[in-house]
Specification:
Radius of gyration: 18 Å
Oligomer: single chain
Order of helices and strands: HEHHEEEEEHHHEEEEEE
Distance between the termini: 14 Å
Shape: globular
CATH class of the largest domain: Alpha Beta
CATH topology of the largest domain: Ribosomal Protein L22, Chain A
CATH architecture of the largest domain: Alpha-Beta Complex
CATH superfamily of the largest domain: 4'-phosphopantetheinyl transferase domain
Number of strands: 12
Number of domains: 2
Strand content: 25-35%
Length: 256
């Protein structure tokens, strides 16, 4: 029988999982978190604590679907930063069980997105529409062509949409690399005037130089983008809802 991981790998697919954090934690959610994550939950105010814990518990449940182990046995960590080699700055990784699975999680308010792939890097970013000084923010993070594109939009709503298209694409790239927004985002030109997918060039140590970036369809008020290695064969992007997974009471492993 072909496993979920093998189906993902053999199609060079990217699976995007969408979820929503409830108002209260589900039974057992905090039991799935690491000690560091539980400590963070204790320091956060509600509802931020509930949203953080729910998303990170769901992350382990989704990963267990591909890893074929109970969610509580999934151990997460980080790869070294590609710039400074610090062990806490890099991309998230699965430390156990041994696997070629890669993932990236993004949260915005109660919403979360998780990208899962086999054998190559991936980044995803999710943003909610919010009050923002678009002109001021754009000058800080946009390349000259991107800034011209945002400023050319006919009204404030269109400029906001253009800004978040740029921002989520940039964030997806730097998250896939593992350097975050310490990067000068003005140097990451994501060709916002094109619908995509687009090829984005950006050089960092020990990282691919070219990324395939595309917008993800979201409900009104949400913006999202995906970045993956351009050198990998680009298979399909499949979007799933977290509710598609149901727990197996016998094993604790999630099955679709």
């Amino acid at each position: 029988m072909t496993t979920a991981y093998e189906r993902l790998r053999d199609r060079n697919a990217v699976h995007i999982w969408r979820g929503w954090a409830p108002d209260a934690l589900a039974p057992g959610d905090t039991d799935l978190l690491s000690e560091a994550e539980r400590h963070k939950v204790r320091r956060l105010p509600n509802p931020a604590a509930v949203r953080y814990a729910a998303a990170h518990a769901a992350l382990r449940r989704v990963l267990s679907h591909y890893l074929a182990v109970p969610p509580r046995e999934v151990v997460l960590g980080r790869r070294p930063c590609p710039r400074c080699a610090h062990p806490r700055h890099g991309r998230p990784r699965i430390e156990w069980p041994p696997t070629g699975l890669e993932f990236n999680l993004s949260r915005s308010g109660p919403h979360w997105l998780l990208a899962v792939v086999a054998g190559h890097r991936v980044g995803v970013d999710l943003e909610g529409d919010r009050s923002l000084d678009v002109d001021g923010a754009s000058e800080l993070v946009m390349s000259a062509p991107e800034l011209a594109h945002v400023c050319s939009r006919p009204d404030e709503s269109a400029r906001t949409r253009a800004f978040f298209r740029c921002w989520t694409r940039k964030e997806a790239v730097v998250k896939a690399i593992g350097v975050g927004i310490v990067t000068d985002l003005r140097a990451v030109d994501v060709q916002a005037c094109q619908d995509g997918p687009v090829l984005v060039d950006h050089t960092e140590p020990n990282s691919p130089d070219t990324w395939l970036v595309q917008d993800l369809p979201m409900a009104d008020g949400l913006f999202a983008a995906l970045a993956r290695e351009a050198g990998a064969a680009a298979g399909p992007v499949e979007i799933h809802r977290y509710e598609e997974l149901v727990p197996s009471m016998e094993t604790g492993v999630l099955v679709a």
